[in-house]
Amino acid sequence: MHKRCARYLLAFVIFSAWTNALSAERIPIIFDTDFVMPPSDDSMALMLALRSPELEILGITTVAGNESVERATSDVLRMLEIAEQEDIPVYVGADMPLVHEKSDFAVQSYGNWYSNEPPPEPPGGFATKIAEQGSAVSFIVDTVMSRPGEVTLVAIGPMTNIAQAIRAEPKFASSVKQLVIMGGAVAALPDGAGNITPNAEFNFWVDPEAAYVALRSGIPIELSPLNVSRKSALDIGWYQKMVAVDTPLTRLLKDTLGRRFEADPERVWLMYDQIAVASIIDPTLVTSERLYVDVNIDHGISYGVSVGGRKQWPGAEGAQQMNVQNDLDWPRFIEMFIERVQR
């Protein structure tokens, strides 16, 4: 064989081995989200996931939360077109929580999870890509059961779809590799106050019953609560560094998040769902503690409040132990985030 051909063959073999190894090491995930376009944390978390070769997004499932499930679906379809990753399937999920009903407080507070209004047009117009025919719950169950012990669920909205999947298939919970949740606030740790009621975090408050089912399911859980989110601080300096390189995603951030900084240059944004996704890519970015965590489903002043303790306590005998994130290496995290969205 000619020496040049031999070198080309060797290079091809090495490249093929490297790409196969990279593919084999990718973490298969299902991305469950109450998606809204930037500056929402869900959209920026998806940007990070889309541009991270460590992750293999098997599909995206939508749920009512920040807005209606119709808007979540419309916006995420458009996001995939902007990111030029239309091959990722999208499945429509729950349009209401398991039990929680619309109330005057819900209407007066953040979030339109109860809405059935048509979604507004996303940046650049409605997507031509359409959602798949099957339901989110069927997709989640079928995907996990076809790959037992392999799939990580990334739940960054209310847990309605996840709870329905757990209830739909008795062997589902034992077949999930890991459940990464952005939700809750743990008073036993610093920065543990709520953000919708004094002690309840929004995602858990929208569907406390679903969070209760998920937390007690026995699935290995990595919980990313408000405690760790409050260690983040996206200011205009980090934003300007982020959009200094022109890509489809940074252009979208300029058109959306940029307007917010123009209106209020002193504003500092916390990052929520982004941290949950980043902790899958690089677990060393966060510090976690093993705690028993449960959620209150009594319809009173503590509805939707998550409680964490180092030991089980009366009333929480069914609570499971899980990793609870409580600190963040903010400089390393934001540098990684910026580098990824600039790809």
User: Can you give the mean pLDDT?
Assistant: 94
What is the number of helical segments per DSSP (H or I, 4+ residues)? Answer: 14
Q: What order do the SSEs take from the amino end to the carboxyl end, as H and E? A: HEHEHEHHEHHEHHEHHHHEEEH
Radius of gyration: 20 Å
Question: Which architecture does the CATH hierarchy give at level 2?
Answer: Alpha-Beta Complex
The stretches of 5 or more residues where confidence is low (pLDDT under 50) are 11-23
The total number of structural domains is 1
Structural overview:
It is a single chain. The chain is α/β, with parallel strands linked by helices and 343 residues long. The chain has a single domain (27-341), classed as Ribonucleoside hydrolase-like (Inosine-uridine Nucleoside N-ribohydrolase, Chain A, Alpha-Beta Complex). It is 40% helix and 16% strand. The chain has 14 helices and nine strands. It has helices at residues 3-25, 41-50, 69-82, 104-108, 136-146, 160-168, 172-175, 202-206, 208-215, 226-229, 236-242, 248-263, 273-281, 330-341; strands at residues 27-33, 55-62, 90-92, 152-155, 178-182, 221-224, 286-295, 306-309, 320-328. Strands 3-2-1-4-5-6-9-7-8 form a nine-stranded mixed β-sheet, with helices on both faces. The longest helix is centred in the first third of the chain and has 23 residues, at 3-25. The radius of gyration is 20 Å and the shape is globular. The two termini are 39 Å apart.
